[in-house]
Amino acid sequence: MQTQKILITSQKGGVGKSSIAANLAAAYAVQHQRRTVLLDLDHQGTSSKWIQDGQLAHRPGLLRAMPIEVPNDKGAGVATLHAKDGLRRAGRDAEAVIADLTWNDVLHKEFLFDFELVLVPTSLSPIELASSLEFISRFRSIFNASDRPAPELVIVPSRVQNENEYLEVMGRMDFPVAFHLAPPIPYSSLAQESYRREFFLHSQDETLRHAFVRFSNAIERFASLRQRKAESRALTISHRVSTEAGLLREFVAARAARSAPTALNPALNPALNPVALSDQVAPGEGLRVNGAGGRPIAASLVRARVNVGTAASLASAASATSAANAKAASQPSKLFAFLRRG
Ligand SMILES: Nc1ncnc2c1ncn2[C@@H]1O[C@H](COP(=O)(O)OP(=O)(O)OP(=O)(O)O)[C@@H](O)[C@H]1O
Ligand SMILES: [Mg+2]
What we know:
The protein has 10 helices and 11 strands. By secondary structure, the chain is an alpha/beta fold.
């Protein structure tokens, strides 16, 4: 099994990075039964101390912490080399590496390419959301890279007081890159008290416990999907469709009715396209959202993805894309399509 590498980061302090990193690592070991390393890239060592001291009811021997000193005073090259080397060593004998890092601009942005997922925790407060948005915007060239497998962004609503509020708030935001919206992690006073003692998946706070299990399941699924995508040599064609609901129906119906090759028609051959349109999952399960095009997100955008498995179908893929492009050209503000190598 290929090692899943997940980074939890942001530049803002106190947003819950270390709590999420330590608890996600514990969940990977206990729930998903993976040999897991918590890679602590922060000087404070908050998350690694939690792993070292926290009680796991059935400590499976699958979990360990690796704190790494990233020197900030020796320039970008040295800092990035240290971080990359730590990640390589952590991944040597692990099935999952969960890294905790307060982003520091001394690191090269390209370090993010070493991960499948980049989780950015944020509360719903306007100040934190604005800061997260600014942070994500600075990395858009990494998340939007098409010349190599790009890490996928996961926004993690953290310390959420009102569950009903989070989709509404996130739906109003306009993000410059596509992202997964993780199930929220609720605010809990027990979350604070459990530091270095126990893990959220065994918390006495039932709401926190259930939410965290749901959260870690979603993260594992996002990471697995991302791995499958990278492993597949197939060309990936993505159509991003902004739904004006009527237009989306029209688009989906047109695809279903098209007599073009089955490989291009997820409605006719879902096996070739396991994730097509399945991105419309229940909000609590995590949601894949496209933020490009200046449109609001959440329910108003949907992504359809087609994996084309054979070289023979590439020509048809190209012609179908041309058709989609022609349609896009006639409705430029509503629909666009693009080709991307997976
Ligand atoms: N779900 C939660 N509910 C309530 N409090 C929380 C929750 N998650 C974290 N906290 C608290 O928020 C504070 C910051 O959390 P944490 O240390 O995990 O954030 P951080 O982003 O790693 O901070 P730093 O930037 O200092 O490394 C801590 O006091 C922690 O106990
Ligand atoms: Mg921390």
